[in-house]
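Quick one, T. Sequence first:
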Amino acid sequence: MFLLSSSARRMAGGTLFSGLLAAVLASCGESRGAGGPPGFGGPPPHVDVVVVQPQVLPVSFEYTGQTQGSREVEVRARVTGILLTRNYTEGAAVRAGQSLFTIDPVPFQNALARAEADRGAVQARMANAQRLLARVKPLADVGMVSKRDYDDAVSAEQVAAADLKSAEAKVTEAKLNLGYTRVVAPVSGVAGGAAKSEGSLVSGPDVLLTTIVQTDPVKAVFGIPDAEQARIQADIRAGRLVLPPGGFGVEVAAADGTLLARGGKLQFSEPLVNSATGTVRSQAELPNADRAIKPGQFVRVRLIGATRPDVVQVPQRAVLEGPRGKFVYVAAASDKPEMKGATVATPRPVQAGEWVDLPSGKGWVIREGLQAGDKVIVDGLMRIGPGAPVQLAQAAPAAANAPGAAPTPSK
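Structure tokens:
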């Protein structure tokens, strides 16, 4: 058995370490030659791309709203009296002018009779004053009666004429009050329940009898977020959004997406922003002949008919999120001399807009960052990085866009 000195042992250990290091490096070299990480030293990975093309895109905007009757009228009596009868079916449709309630007319019939009798007495006094004036005037012309007697006759005729007008006004008022004992529907619509039953004392307009709601057409009231309305107006001014002739069309759907009505029109948007909600109150009117929409119902209001010219769309999975915002990978020729002729994945910052429905699923409208003919990578994104060489598996035409696809608001 040989004993080695310390220096000999150090030399032997260094030789062994050098041999192991050389073996490891050789193994790594062989591994790289056999195929390293995809896209970097190994064969370029295969990726799927879509070729984007600008097109005209229909646009819709959706908001949560609540329906109202186009008219909601409170029915009240104009006179005080006892309610005799209810002349309609609660909850049923009524026509304008249809009798709803009857108030006891007897007191008003008596009042009309008294007013007509008073008018008759005033008419008799008027006739007598006119005859007196007719007799006095010729005598006054020849000086056979005094000026005072003539003036008294003229005044008596004038007072009688004024009394007659007053009496006629009272007769007219009595007739109106008698007519008001028949409470009629001011508009056509659906009448609600009666607030007073027969035999109740109705003290004139202070008492609500029922309510009529006009449900055809129907109104939809909704709020547009202030920031979104400002963005829409900016897009219109810049030509990025084109409104249909006559403004937005409107359709309404239930909470589960079932379409309730279409063919509506946006009536107006308030000029002020609600400070509590940060929205602009807007109102639309829609036909409701089948009464599928009930007043007070919460609905999804869609503004339709607008278009975005010259926009591109890409599948949702192609858009990635980075520290500086959204971006996509575009397959393009490398500009590096050492990779001349190779196709590489180039990150491209984009400005995403609304979501759209594509044949392959959801997609993004890209407002800025892409041009016609760009090849956007949609599959194989996990195997690449910035500047990585790639092989194109298949280029789908027109970025898999669906002409006429209706976008939904971005979340």
